[in-house]
Amino acid sequence: PECGWVDESADEKPDVRVEETDAQTRVRQAKRKLDDYIDIFDPTLKAPVKEKSGEEKAGAGNLQPIVSQPLTEPASPKAARYSETRTNNLERLVDSYRQAKAELSLDDFKLLKLRIPGQGEVSLRGYFRHIKYAQTGYNGRVLFGGGLIEQRYGLGFKFRFFDRIDGKLVTLYVSPAQMQAYRSSRYISELLSHADDVKFFTVYALGTVTQSPSGKSYGLEVDDLRHLAIVLGPAKDLVEEGKAAAP
User: Fold this and answer.
1) Basic and acidic residues composition bias: which ranges (predicted)?
2) Which of 74, 85, 140, 195 has the most neighbouring CB atoms within 10 Å?
3) H-helix or E-strand spanning residue 173
């Protein structure tokens, strides 16, 4: 005779708590050491920069989509109670990257990941590419390198990288019109005003590398200055004092 009772729980898998791997534990601990860790960076800029100030304010919510809020995507990984941080602010991402690189061990730094909508997951370290390794065209990475302000053109400027691509000079030109259209241009101008006080600047940018018509140099073109971040280098007097004190 058939048995009317069926143990439905026999086919159910027990609700076992998934334990963190050693790598996951190290990533979690590394994130806690940082002031502002970015999980998701969206480089998409949806609003034009030349809007009137009133229109910009009306669309401000679109310029900064989600900051320090959980990502509401169904494919959320194994994170338990961790709120993922999302931003499209390049300078914020650069600050997080620089702190991680400076304060974490190399092994822990290599473990950090970053999600880019449309690209997927990449290593935080791999999303930043030194200018000397850049390729012609859009690299899909934050290109960076040290250098000097070669010339000013009113509000505009030309930045010359120390390192070269294929032995050829690399520059970044920002026109006066670009600066005038950028609402944070005063902040950039303030940074550039320290050109005589610092040994160098470091530029971080999302842009396109193009070769000059003569083929003798390369240019890094940044269409939107929200995709440009400039960091002051060490002060000249501190560098000189350090050299003088060296045996």
Assistant:
1) 11-24, 48-58
2) 85
3) strand 169-174
